[in-house]
């Protein structure tokens, strides 16, 4: 493992995850009883650390390495493991939650959400809101625009 590689564990003990991890080249932590996932931070990358975490967790969910219901490490635990400030990991988790990849259940922790279709729809909606806000539209104005398009679709 390289100097920038860091591990975190899915908190869901499941031999299926161990098999998935081995087939993807990500080996479980010996004796941990959980499938390990790898987060690699590249200090030389132009991409900030929170975005590297966000992207890698989202990719692992997309590939099925993290399954719906899998519990992610706490913000503090992952920050300690990666040698980052807790706010950096918290921002990655907020971005993941905003796009529907994970949900936070208070003190119970953060978990991978279940529906890929819903997750992609939330990501598209979040992107839409970001773009319409950049154009100067408010949330209600952007929503009204979508409602008008549902009632009166624009033909290509």
UniProtKB/TrEMBL annotation:
Origin species: Nocardioides pocheonensis
Region (Disordered): 1-34
Keywords: DNA-binding, Transcription, Transcription regulation
Biased segments, Basic and acidic residues type: 1-22
UniProt KW Endoplasmic reticulum keyword: no
Domain HTH gntR-type, chain residue ranges per copy: 47-115
The protein's name: GntR family transcriptional regulator
UniProt GO molecular function: DNA binding; DNA-binding transcription factor activity
Highest classification ranks of the organism: Bacteria, Bacillati, Actinomycetota, Actinomycetes, Propionibacteriales
SUPFAM superfamilies reported in the protein's UniProt record: Winged helix' DNA-binding domain (SSF46785)
InterPro entries (UniProt xref): Tscrpt_reg_HTH_GntR, WH-like_DNA-bd_sf, WH_DNA-bd_sf
Pfam families: GntR
Record's keyword annotation contains Disulfide bond: no
